[in-house]
Amino acid sequence: MIPLLRKKVAMRAGRGENGPDGCPARKTRLLHQCYAKLLEGWNALTADVKVLQWADGLWRRSWIVLAGLLSDQPEADTFCCDGSQSCKVCTCPKSRLHEPVEFPLKSAERVRRQVYRAADGMMMIHGQAKAAKLFERDRRSDVKWKPTRHCTKAGYERARKALRGTHLMENAFWGKTGFDVQLQVMSSTKLLTSYLCISVHICIYIYIYVILLHICAYLCISVYIYVVSVYISPYMCIS
Q1: What per-residue confidence (pLDDT) applies to 142?
Q2: Model confidence over 218-237: pLDDT tens digits?
Q3: DSSP 8-state class, residue 70
Q4: Total domain count, the chain
Q5: Domain membership flag for residue 217
Q6: Which of 3, 22, 156, 179 has the most CB within a 10 Å radius?
Q7: What is the pLDDT of residue 195?
Q8: Residue 75 in domain
C-alpha cells in the first residue's frame, strides 16, 4: 500500500476518519480517479470489433471487454465505493443481516442514480430539515466533486447512512459497456464464499484425521506395552 494512504500516517498528519475528505473517502477516491484515467474513452474504443493477432499467431476479430473482478472484502468495498458494514449483494441493512429475509439486489445503475440524487440535494435524508445540495458534480470522472457549504462531516455521514454506506463520489466503473460493478462483486463474493467453505471443510477433515492418528498411535502403544508386560512377567517371577 502507498504510505500516503496508510490510515495511521494520514490521521497523524491531521486527516480525519469521517467526512468527504476523511481517510476512507480519500483512499477510495484516489483509486477511482486512477481507474478513470486508465478507462478514459473505454466505451468508444471498444464499440467495434478489433482485428487482433492472438498468441498463436493468427489474426481474429475480437471484442474487448472488462472480464470481471476478483477481490476480498476490502477490495470489494473499494470497487463499489462502499463501506465495510454493508452487503454488496443486496440492499439489506446491517441490522437485519441475520434475518432470513430477501431484499432487492443491487445494481450499478441503481446505486449511481441514488448517489447522484443525494449529491444534488434531491433526496430527503433523515436528520436534515430539508434537502440540500452537497456537491458540485464534475462531468469528468477523474475529477473530485467540489463540496458545497452544506457538505459538513455530519451531513456527509448522514447521506452515506441513507445510501447504506456508499461514498458520494464518481465510480470509475459506472457506465462501462457490458460491465456492472455490483454484479461482478457479487460473483466474486460467491466465489470467495465457496472457496472459504471448501477450505473450512478441508481443515475439519485434516483435524479429524490427525485426531484419529493420535488415537490409533495411543492404542498401538498401549497394546504394545501390554504384550511386552505379559511376555516378560513369567521371567520376572522366576527371577
Answers
A1: 83
A2: 666 665 555 555 555 555 55
A3: -
A4: 1
A5: no
A6: 156
A7: 42
A8: yes
Cβ-contact 4, 10 below 8 angstroms: yes
SS3 content of the chain, % helix, strand, coil (to 5): 50, 5, 45
**This model's pTM is above 0.85:** no
Which segments of the chain have a pLDDT < 50?
Answer: 1-4, 191-198, 239
State the burial class of residue 166 (Cβ atoms within 10 Å of its Cβ: 0-12, 13-18, 19+): buried
Cα dihedral value 23, 98, 118, 124, nearest 10: -130
DSSP letter at 142 equals T
Name the β-bridge partners of 147: 135
Q: What's the domain range around 182?
A: 3-198
Cβ count near 225 (within 10 Å) = 10
Grid cell locating 185: 462483486
The per-residue pLDDT for range 187-224, each reduced to its tens digit, is 555 544 444 444 555 566 566 766 776 677 666 666 55
Rg (CA), the chain: 29
DSSP per position, 187-215: HHHHHHHHHHHHHHHHHHHHHHHHHHHHH
Provide the pLDDT for residue 1: 40
Within a domain: 228? no
Is position 210 within any domain?
A: no
Query: Where are the alpha helices (H) located in 139-180, listed in sequence order?
Result: 153-162
Beta strands in the chain (DSSP E): 50-53, 59-62, 135-136, 146-147
- Strand pairing category for 50-53 and 146-147: unpaired
Query: Which candidate, 15, 18, 7, 17, places its Cα nearest to that of 161?
Result: 18
Give me the pLDDT at residue 225, please.
59
